[in-house]
Amino acid sequence: MSTLDFGGRIKTLRLSKSMTQEQLAQRLRVSPQAVSKWENGVSYS
User: How confident is the model over 6-43, as pLDDT tens digits?
Assistant: First the structure.
């Protein structure tokens, strides 16, 4: 799975649950910026 596929999968699953990046970030206890970077294939740490 490429990094773009991974980010796209996160975004698809997040949207299927009608969640914002901020809501997902709160649930995962990470920053909204981290979620954005994951979805855009910028970073996975």
Answer: 899 999 999 999 999 999 999 999 999 999 999 998 87
Query: What's the whole-model pTM score?
Result: 0.83
Q: Considering Cα of 20, then 12, then 17, then 35, what sign does the dihedral take?
A: negative
Give Cβ neighbours of residue 14 (< 8 Å, ≥ 6 apart).
21, 24, 35, 39
Write the pLDDT tens digit of every residue in 2-13.
656 889 999 999
The answer for residues whose C-beta is within 8 angstroms of residue 27's C-beta and 6 or more apart is: 19
Rg, Å, the chain Cα set: 10
